[in-house]
Amino acid sequence: MAKIVIDPLTRIEGHLKIEAVVEDGVVKEARSSGMLFRGLEIILKGRDPRDAPQITSRICGVCPTSHCVASTLCLDDAFGITDKIPKNGRILRNLIQGANYIQSHILHFYHLAALDFVDVTKVADYAGKEPALVSVKNFISRALNENDMYMLAPFYPRYEGDYRLSAEENQMAVAHYVAALEARRTAHELSAIFSGLMPHQKSILPGGATENVTVSKIANFMWQLEQLRYFIDNVYIPDVITVGKAYPDYLSIGSGCGRYLSYGVFVLDVAGAGLAQPRFLASGTTSIDTLQYASLDAAQIAEDVLHSRYSSPSGLHPSEGQTEPAPFKPEAYSWVKSPRYKGDVYEVGPLARLLVNYVQQNSVVCSAVDSMMSELGLAPADLAGTLGRHVTRAIEAKLIADEMAKWVLELEPDAPTYVEYELPSNAKGAGLWEGPRGALGHWITIKDGKIGNYQCVVPTTWNASPRDDKEQPGPIEQAIEGTKIKDEENPFEIVRIVRSFDPCLACAIHLLTPKRTELGRFKVC
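Below the sequence we write its predicted structure tokens.
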């Protein structure tokens, strides 16, 4: 029996530690540990509720828009204006969020995960004149001449995997790695047309959005969006198909808990409130065993903390959640809490969103999924593993980009984008949304016009959660357990699985930064 420790696991957002006990070449037990203790929930207490969207957007630099929208929806709910948001305000929120989705999905595949499947060293033998490949070749050559492989970051250091793409496919993938940097910049610029700037936009706020809609902005948005649609259709999706055909065994490797949850995303009509509002991607749950749709009851969400470094009670609904750090708690091994739905473990993310909407018979989703499944010779039930998470991300990027091309034409120049409201003295609100990485919830309690309590349960809180009070491993832990490891010195199987979830520990541990005093205790500061 051997123990593999990966600390930190790189090419993700934040500080994640993975431990795996291996016996006879198979992972028998895995532990996912969030290692950084941060803090915005406590910082928010006592502040004006309208500060929340801008402060919570600082939880993450990759998905700040999602936090801003979730927080804004939370305040819309508390202020009683959810059904009063003007049409332009609703659409602007969707367009700004959609641009962030596209950027995030491209980032994840190319710059965080693709290097697990692509052998960059093949570019050292490149003899052509493609500028991107020549640049990477020269970059590699400098490191080789200096005999310092650490100069090759982020390509090195790495675990040596079973790279299966041909030399030509590897070289093309590296060229697309470079092109994806430009695509991400375009996505940020796309968002900034209506959000003012990125990553921390200034337009979305309670009541709608502040940006005035003009014909020139609509035209500019359409032009840049078309560049991204071209990249998705002709680069991103073909690359995912290439990797999928080369690594078919990763359809089953990393399959995880098999239960999926989505809050839904992209509001299509402000009638109703919360999850009752029509959304392009609907809320719900499903499982890979049944592929049957079930509606979501948000009241059934609770957070366990048995193995989390908190002294607050287990089983609290997020609206009543507490943040009481206990850094030396004996049985704890993570700063991440353990969200559960009806007491069970659920995975969230693009795979969950598309499966939920596929079984809910969303016609647009069904058509896109069936088309990709035909290309790969698969069925939806084959998507539960590592590869399925990449495939569904690519499909979703296309779905969202194509819908954005329709939404932007629904904007009405110079029409209202914002509705005024009154700040309540006492109220509660919830903002249930979907970040690119999955289900994102914000809950607020307003007391005497100030924030009395604020809680966030983010996608990676679900996916990277430790064991709960029933000792059920979290989704990432379950995905690793049972995996065959070819070489314990190069556990590339583990990093491929973990990175397929696109974990963001900056989001999952949005608590208070500790300060160690002379007595060795953590001081809240």
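Residues 270 and 381 are 33 Å apart (CA to CA).
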